[in-house]
Amino acid sequence: MKHLYIKSLVALFLLSLASCKKDIEFRTAHLPILEPKNIDLDAGSWKTVLLTRPDTFAIATPLDKSNANYIAELNEIKGFQRNLTQDQSSNINYWAAGGVLRWNELIRELVAKYNLPPFQNEDGTYPIPSSANPFAYPLFPFANPPYSARAYAYIAAAQYDALVACWHYKKLYNRAAPYNNDSSIIAKAGKSNLPSYPSEAAVIAGVTAEMMKLLFPTEIAAIQEKATAHEEATIMSGSATRSDVNAGDALGRQIAQVFIARAKTDKAGKAVGTPTDWANFETSTIAKGEIPWISQDSPKRPGMLPLYGNVKPFLFDTTTAKSLVPPPPPLTGSDQMKIELAEVLSYTNNPTIENQQLVLFWGDGVGTYTPPGHWNAIAAEDFITKNFSEVRWARNLALLNMALMDAGIVCWKTKYTYYNPRPSQLDPRIKTLTGLPNFPSYISGHSTFSGAAAAILGYIIPERASAYTQMANDASKSRLVGGLHYRSDCEVGLRVGNDIGQYAIERAKTDGAN
Amino acid sequence: MNLIKFHRHIALCVGFVVTIASSFAQTDQDAIMMNKNQFCTGLMYGTDSWNKYWEGTNHRENLNLGTISSKSLSVMGNYGIKDNLNFLFNTPYISNKASAGTLHSIAGIQDLSAWLKWMPIEKDLKHGTFSLYVLAGASAPLNDYIVDYLPLAIGFKSSTASGRLMLDYQLGDFFATASETYTIRGNSQTERNAYYTTVMNLSNQIAMPDVNTLHFRAGYRTSWLIAEATLTDTKTLGGFDITKNNMPFPSNRMNSTSVGVNIKYEIPKVFGLSLIGGGNHVIQGRNVGQSTAYYGGLFYILDFSKKVKKKKESTNSSTEKK
Prior knowledge:
- The complex is a heterodimer.
- Helices cover 57% and strands 0% of the residues of chain A.
- Chain A has two domains: 43-54 and 78-264, Vanadium-containing Chloroperoxidase, domain 2, CATH 1.10.606.10; 299-509, Orthogonal Bundle (Vanadium-containing Chloroperoxidase, domain 2).
- Chain A is built from 19 helices and no strands.
- Chain B is globular, with a radius of gyration of 20 Å.
- In chain B, strands 1-4-5-7-8-9-10-15-16-17-18-19 form a twelve-stranded antiparallel β-barrel. A two-stranded antiparallel sheet of chain B has the order 2-3.
- Chain B has helices at residues 309-313, 317-321; strands spanning 38-50, 52-55, 58-61, 68-82, 85-98, 106-109, 111-124, 129-141, 160-171, 174-185, 188-189, 195-196, 200-201, 205-206, 210-221, 225-237, 255-266, 273-286, 292-303.
- Chain B has one domain: monomeric porin ompg (Porin, Beta Barrel).
- Chain B is built from two helices and 19 strands.
- The N and C termini of chain B lie close together (10 Å).
- Chains A and B meet through α1, α4 and α13 of A and β4, β7, β8, β12 and β13 of B.
């Protein structure tokens, strides 16, 4: 008997030690160099989002390759390459996986960091983050799902326009990459016939850093460090000279201003609303004879960005956005609502472990990169396998994120049009399997975002279309079985999202990238 | 007269309701051994609750959680392989709920933990008796419970391995025990595939920092009654602070200092039957709930030794100690 004890204990002990592995390998930590299947040399003619022309912002004609200053730039690269440190080599490898990819990851990281609801004041009211005073608590921004959907979209669209302009000049000036001009320069981040002036890496770094000043003002210093690291990496890798980088950085930053100007007037700044607005939602819902949504936060918190539905969309105009708002949910007193409420309760009464896991996997709540971020992660990890050029990466992420932002706008418009209570408000026996979001129920944000994302991603990567649909269905279902939404919220949300995704598909069909 | 060597102690509810599994509800923190071939087993019921916690170092309440309360029922056992070598195990069923807010309660079987407890040195000094104990422990999740649902998750689903040195001194009816435990914790897994700590982690694996625990207990100890006070200081060696108004995460730096009392009473009429009870309270912490716990249990010794009588003749002072 004692041998059995000792053996089982020793076995358990060894098992524990064996499973005590501490190293965690992040999925995208070590990626191959991005070597595009197609350099998309004609991308300068692709349809831009805001720029009216790819050459709205002029850049100087580059120096000839025989010019002494250019030769000095090549010598700078050679000097770097002779004495690369370990850190410099890692930096080259990190960015060589793709600049659009790496910036997308960095933005997701910032969204997660800033996705924290403000703590209440002493008197039970809540402070509102202020872009005018971003370092005071609560730090600006509160990167909740609508805020982050818009941030992802502006950055992706600005990167795309900037890269279209970049490609325009690349083709126009046709300056070969350093490694093609000088055989003693090693191509440490892949080799192609894509002209290097202006540097696409610097365009991405410049445009993104500039956008982030608006969207994440407390992170400007950290972001600038990343931009510099990106630009240094492209020089040291032999992909671009300093003048390629300087021209690219300046071009990116100028194009960002076009997007920043739009962002300042797109009504997002007014999305918080006023106490009068907040009261109106409630009184007008009661006037219709319906039970209004009530915050279940304690103390009661004003609904998240109630006027976000008025934000100017990217893929269609405001009138179209309004027309995409679905018909009302079942009346709060209707039999249909009773049935749907009972269904939610049936799921939360005795949750299965599978449902608990599903709810947490798709939860994307406080402290995460939000549902739009989750779809960016899904897209990015698939795009990695596709070897898209940087400009095509940007185009595809712009399509995805414009669809996500517009889905958020229509979803929010719907939520604050009907101001429908959550299941747990109508039946307090319903307990949720993840945090309850602080805004009305109809329609489900997760479902709307996911419907839109699955549609456009299925167009971009057709062989994954059914997988994306399945993911969207899972994300949507997680909100029902998690006790956060009724079936109507989820089904209508998916449908509305899919409708919005079609606008992105229509754009994709005619943007010149096919 | 022979004694019951079994005594237990809910060491401490370290962590966020979730206990650091290896130190929860163990009989492994006392300087008491079962005799060879004796098997002591029983059930322990515990409750634990808090309505304040430390968010990093910020002591606060959370109106969206109210009071977090935990109930547990543990099956425990201690078998005497030899007089100075014991095998101990413990597995709890835990149920956690919040009194406010909408979060669903969670219940289930948590982890199995087991210890080998060896007493290589026991020495009668001029005054009193000194003994040294060496323990090796391990724990592993028994069940597929959810992890990334703090503060209501029932455990961290991390396999652990622990080593402990323990010193004990008994003088007459009084004693003092001190121990230090180092616990290596294997990765935990979140149900998500990406999570933010102080950086974005594109993985479902959570690196769990190791834990070091100092434990002291002292009081009255005779063959029929033990009454003792305890002090436990647990430090997580790494991990990060909960950010303001965020939720806790398994790899937070969870530290705590707690004080408690335990009583074990040997029922005189029934050989081998004992009652135990106690409580403890967290007096200082970081990223943990300020919990107050109470527990009580009933234990019985099954004697598998061929000759019970032999015990009587034992001169092993450890048998006399209690």
